Amino acid sequence: MKLLTVFSLLLRFLLEVAKSGLATAWLILRPGVRPTPGLVRMRYAGLSDTGVALLGCMITLTPGTTVIDIDNQRRELLIHLLDDSDPAAVVANVRRSFETPLRRLFPAGDQA
């Protein structure tokens, strides 16, 4: 079961990197339109320290997003967005694509 989750997460990650890469290139190359960068805080739950570290890495490796702080006390990530037009959609996508499968692989209390 975990092997299926690993492959599913890897596929989601690769698709998100490709999709975000194209969206970021379009945002930058589009004439006359300047992106409005911003910051968004995303709370996380149910992840081990390893899971949180992997979540931060996956977000940072996805074009247009960079984790700039992980607050373990608040269980919160501070994420820089190249385009801050819809931060709620970015957070929802991160939860669906990365956080949920990582929670299955690296649940809180499991420091593997």
Architecture overview:
The chain is of the alpha+beta class. The protein has helices spanning 2-29, 49-61, 87-105, and strands spanning 38-43, 65-71, 76-81. It contains 3 helices and 3 strands. Helix 1 runs antiparallel to helix 3 and helix 2 (49-61) packs across helix 3 (87-105). The radius of gyration is 14 Å and the shape is globular. The relative contact order is 0.22.
Write the layout of secondary structure elements.
Layout: H1 2-29, E1 38-43, H2 49-61, E2 65-71, E3 76-81, H3 87-105
Antiparallel strand pairs: 1-3, 2-3
Helix pairs in contact: 1-3, 2-3
Short description:
The chain is an alpha+beta fold. It has three helices and three strands; from the N terminus they run H-E-H-E-E-H.
**Rg over C-alpha atoms, rounded to the nearest angstrom:** 14 Å
Uncertain runs = none
Structural class: alpha+beta
Distance between the termini: 17 Å
Counted up, domains total 1
Biggest sheet strand order reads 1-3-2
Q: On the 0-100 scale, what is the average pLDDT?
A: 94
**Backbone shape:** globular
Strand content: 15-25%
List keywords for this structure.
3-stranded antiparallel sheet; 3 helices; 54% helix
